[in-house]
Write a structure and sequence with these properties.
Distance between the termini: 60 Å
Radius of gyration: 19 Å
Number of helices: 8
Order of helices and strands: HHHHHHHH
Number of domains: 1
Structural class: mainly alpha
Number of strands: 0
Strand content: under 5%
Low-confidence stretches: 1-10
Shape: globular
């Protein structure tokens, strides 16, 4: 009976907004992120700080690789829907490049992409199966892990965006969108939700149907990035 109730609550239910499966990983990631960043900043030397971030970033990337490898091994991998080309999955795959080189221009782009991109995923999760499905773990490790990486770079390495970083990140996003348009055309896919909104509830539901939601998002991206930049601007102004 307990097993049946457990399955009914978790495994066979889509993760819904505000549910325990939604809130719990966010709380855990917040607590871990605060501890990880504070410990690295005050207890580790420079080399250890760099290594700690790189190991953490590699762990995120490894989760993405293992997930896709496992799905391929099961024999139902579909390149039109399953490639790691959605923004957060792609960032999760390549984030070790940033943690290894720690180039400021990478930080400028990633900060706005990650905060802006993961916010919707965190607030409105699109997870078909809940705990303990592997996709459930992958989803939260990637989305929440990416946030920890950029906040680590911000508070431990003291990286800060500049006003021009907003526009650099926006232009880089346009390049990504153009590439996704081409890939979607070739594969008849919907990566980055450029052809259709996600099945689960999302912020895009408030922006109308296709193509209007794409137009609305393009209009609000720069103001949204400026909003992300605002705390950095205010902090810098005070100092």
């Amino acid at each position: 009976m307990i097993f049946i109730i457990y399955n009914a609550i978790f495994l066979f239910s889509r993760v819904t907004i505000g549910s325990f499966q939604h809130v719990f990983p966010i709380v855990i990631a917040f607590l871990f992120g605060v501890f990880f960043i504070k410990y690295a900043k005050h207890k580790l030397n420079t080399t250890q700080q760099k290594n700690a971030l790189h190991v953490f970033a590699c762990a995120i990337s490894l989760i993405v690789i293992v997930f896709h490898s496992h799905k391929i091994s099961l024999g139902y991998y579909n390149i039109s829907t399953d490639l790691p080309l959605y923004l957060c999955s792609l960032l999760g795959l390549i984030i070790p490049v940033f943690s290894y080189y720690k180039k400021f221009w990478m930080y400028e782009i990633l900060l706005f992409w990650i905060i802006g991109g993961t916010l919707q995923g965190i607030l409105t999760p699109d997870i078909p199966l809940g705990f303990p499905d592997f996709d459930y773990f992958r989803y939260w490790v990637v989305h929440l892990g990416l946030l920890i990486v950029v906040f680590y770079a911000t508070f431990v390495f003291n990286m800060r965006p500049k006003l021009k970083s907003v526009f650099k990140s926006f232009m880089a996003l346009q390049i990504y969108v153009i590439i996704m348009v081409v890939i979607n055309k070739v594969l008849k896919a919907n990566y980055f939700y450029l052809n259709e909104k996600p099945e689960s509830a999302s912020l895009l539901d408030y922006f109308g149907e296709w193509p209007w939601y794409i137009i609305v998002v393009q209009i609000i991206v720069i103001p949204f990035f400026l909003l992300i930049y605002l705390p950095f601007y205010l902090t810098n102004k005070r100092s």
